Structures are given as structure tokens and as C-alpha cells.
Amino acid sequence: MVNTDETTAAVSFDDVRKVYNDYFVAVDEFNAHIEDGEFITVVGPSGSGKSTLLRMIAGLETITAGDIRIGDESIAGVEPQDRGIAMVFQNYALYPHMSVEKNMAYGLRLTTDLADDEIERRVRETADMMGIEDELDSKPSELSGGQQQRVATGRAIVRDPKIFLMDEPLSNLDAKLKVHMRTELQRLQEELGTTTIYVTHDQHEALTMSDRIIVLDEGELQQFAPPDEVYNNPANRFVADFIGSPAMNFFEVASNGSTLVGDGFEYDIPARIADELDGSAGDDLELGIRPEDIDYDATGTNTVQATVEVVEVAGSDNFVYLDIEGTECRVRVPGDVKPAVGEQVTLAFDPADIHLFDERSGENLLADLRTTEPGTAEADTGADAAAAEQETEEVA
Ligand code: ADP
Q1: Domain ABC transporter spans what residues (predicted)?
Q2: Which of 228, 273, 282, 346 is the 20 to 30 A CA-CA neighbour of 174?
């Protein structure tokens, strides 16, 4: 359907549940509200329910319980073709026997009664926008992967939908092209201002592209927040582990009120953290710290001794894998730091950078502290910096 009305394209999920074959729960108790015009990424491991979520909005799957609303209207009674949605898939799904122009016009011809010359005008305008105006007579097989991706996206754009649903649209592209198309999609979305829900298993894509990230695991919402927040203040251990690469380091520790004791180190916690832990402190905690937040070759108090096991040269930065009494610890260091295997080094964890999780529930015990702590301003830049680093690596 062409978006001719003025209704908002906000998307609300109310207690959405999807059960396959009467027993397999793919999505459960899912609640979220996406604002009109937002670019949302849905990220999670394979099988976490990302596609199911998208397919329910599109009408390709039924909703077992709960409701999804677009604007104020429940989609329950609305035919898929009348929902104002356009979907872009990983495999492009272009018709091989049709020209680019026919591929792009197909949806419009099928679902609208627009005149031929209006369809042609829109296709040309979109092809211009996508930089494929010289390929309108080509068949998909004559195009590069990037061009095919542009046709698939153009075919969605030309329909002027209220909502774009994108299911891993860039996974078939090589690393360099992927980075380029990512930027291109972001630019297009900004230009068009169309609500976009973008599914990916790639946490890096989620961090770099979206206004807000939905993190899913086993069909359940783990966190729904802007990239900075997901990175700097993960709701739980799953999010902390899934977002960021290399992943956050975790150490099993017990608290005696003022000190965290783990294998190979003792860590004095400042009063504000001790206060926050009050009541929940115990034997089953995990201390988390990101590889980029660890002070390498440090001096002073609260230090940890570690042994170098592997050095991974990554260009502007290196990654050093160390052993702390049987637990692996990854540290990001400048490119000119190349320690020898077996070398003993001293690490320090700044209290402003540590995370503490309840080992059983996975809950982030310092979440409130981080939300209110002025010190997080420094950490806020971490997500961008880490993402930029990875971008460089991918292109290289
Ligand atoms: P993701 O997109 O995160 O990889 P999916 O939404 O595709 O996850 O799938 C979530 C879970 O539901 C998976 O365990 C998958 O095997 C299962 N599933 C998906 N589609 C079907 C189906 N049509 N019938 C039965 N199970 C399904």
C-alpha cells in the first residue's frame, strides 16, 4: 500500500508471543514501543527470534498472543499488503527474468492502481537516488552484489512504505561493500525518515547503525536502548557479553563488603559501589571489564598480575590475551605494544569501568549507579571509538 495517509508509523508490541507447532516458544512477553521515524536494529544470536518478530509485523507469521500496533491500529485485522510495509531480505529475492526497472515497479503494479507513467517516474527517481539509473534495463544476473542490493532496497523505497523491515540485508556482501552499504542505508533512512526495523546477528552493525537497539535472547527482550547505553550500561551479563568485540572479560568474584576476591586478585571497591551492592553482595558475582578499559602495564593499587599468552596484531591496536590464574583476560593495547609470550604484566581496572553481575540471574548490579554517575560521560565515547576501530579492521 502506498503511504498516502498521515497516520504515524510508530510500532508497538504488547505482550507479543509466538509459539510454533503448539510447543516451541520463539518470542515471549515481548513489549516495546518504536517511535515514528526511528531506525531500530534487532540483534541477537541465531535462533533468538529476530526474524520471527519481523515476520509477525509483515504478516508472514501469525501472532499467537498479544498485539502489534502500527500507529493506533492493531495489525490483527489488516491484510499484509495493506500494512504499509516494505521488506528487504538477505537474498534480495529479485526476479531473475525481469529487468531492474520491472523488478522495482513490480510491487507498485501489483498493489496500487497508479498510472504507468507515475510508476515509471517513481522508479526512475528511486533509481537515481540509489545510483542504479544506468542499470534499469539490466537483468539482476548482470549486476554486482552491491547493485543487486541497491535494486532490492530501491524496490522497497519506491513503494513509499510507512515502515521498512530489513532482515540481514547486507549479509551477502563482502566486508568492504558491507561497510559502504551500511552508511548508504543510514543516509537513505535519514533522508526518508521512514521507521526502519533492521534485523542483524552482527552486534557491530547494531552499534553503528541504529537510534536504538533491541537485544533478544531466546525470544525474550534483554534490553532496548540507544547504542551507547547498551554498550556502557548493559542490562545483564548476556548483553554485556554479546555487545562489544572482543567481548567483555568476566571474572568470578565474591564480595566481603569492601573487597572483591577472585582467583588471582583482590579488588578494593569504592564506597559508592559497596553501597550499591549492599544487600546483594555475596559469593556469586561476576566482575566484568571491557578489553579497551583495562590499564595495561599499570602501577599503584588495585592491580592484577597476568601472564601474556597470545598477542594479536590488529593494526593501530593490538589485542593481548593474558592468563590470570586460569581465567583468560583480553586487553586492547596501542599498536606499538607487543609483549613477548610468557611476559608478566600488571593490569589495573578503574572502578569507573567495572561492571558487576549477579552470577545466577545475570542482572547488572551497578546499572542504577551507571545511569546516574557523572563519570559515565567518559565511558560514553567508548562505544563509538570501539565501533570505529572495528570498522577500520573490517575495511582492512
Ligand atoms: P533468528 O532470526 O533470531 O535466527 P528465528 O526467528 O528465525 O530466529 O527463529 C526463532 C526460533 O524459532 C528458532 O529456534 C527457529 O528454529 C524457530 N522457528 C522459526 N521458524 C519456525 C517455523 N516455521 N516452525 C518452527 N520453528 C520455527
Answers
A1: 11-243
A2: 228
What single letter denotes the amino acid at residue 264? G
**Cα 38 from Cα 87, distance rounded (Å):** 16
Between 217 and 281, the higher pLDDT residue = 217
Examine the pLDDT at 396 and tell me if it is beyond 50.
no
Strand order in the sheet with 65-70: 24-34, 11-20, 65-70, 73-74
CA angle 290, 291, 296 (to 5 degrees): 125
- Residue-level pLDDT at 265: 81
- Among protein residues, the one with the nearest Cα to ligand 1's atom 25 is 20
Whole-structure pTM value: 0.89
**Cβ of residue 291 lying under 6 Å from some atom of ligand 1:** no
Residue scoring higher pLDDT (240 or 173): 240
- C-alpha torsion 209→213→217→218, nearest 10: -100
Residue 197 has a pLDDT of: 97
With a 6 A CB cut-off, is 24 part of the ligand 1 pocket? Answer: yes
Q: How far is the CA of 47 from the centre of ligand 1 (A)?
A: 6
pLDDT band at 277 (very low <50, low <70, confident <90, very high): confident
Rounded to 5 degrees, what angle do the CA atoms 64, 67, 73 make? Answer: 140
Q: How far does the centroid of ligand 1 lie from the alpha carbon of residue 43, in Å?
A: 14
Question: Is pLDDT at 170 greater than 70 in this prediction?
Answer: yes
- Our mutation pick for probing the ligand 1 site, out of 30, 52, 64, 87, counting the most ligand atoms within 8 A of Cβ, is 52
pLDDT > 90? residue 250: yes
CB distance 47 to ligand 1 below 6 Å: yes
Q: Which domains are present in the chain?
A: 5-232 (3.40.50.300), 246-395 (2.40.50.140)
- Name every residue whose Cβ is closer than 8 Å to that of residue 166 and which is 6 or more positions away in sequence: 87, 88, 185, 196, 197, 198, 199
Please state the rounded mean pLDDT for residues 54-77. 94
User: Using a 6 Å cutoff on CB, does residue 222 contact ligand 1?
Assistant: no
Separation of 52 CA from ligand 1 center, angstroms? 6
CB-ligand 1 contact for 200 (6 Å cutoff): no
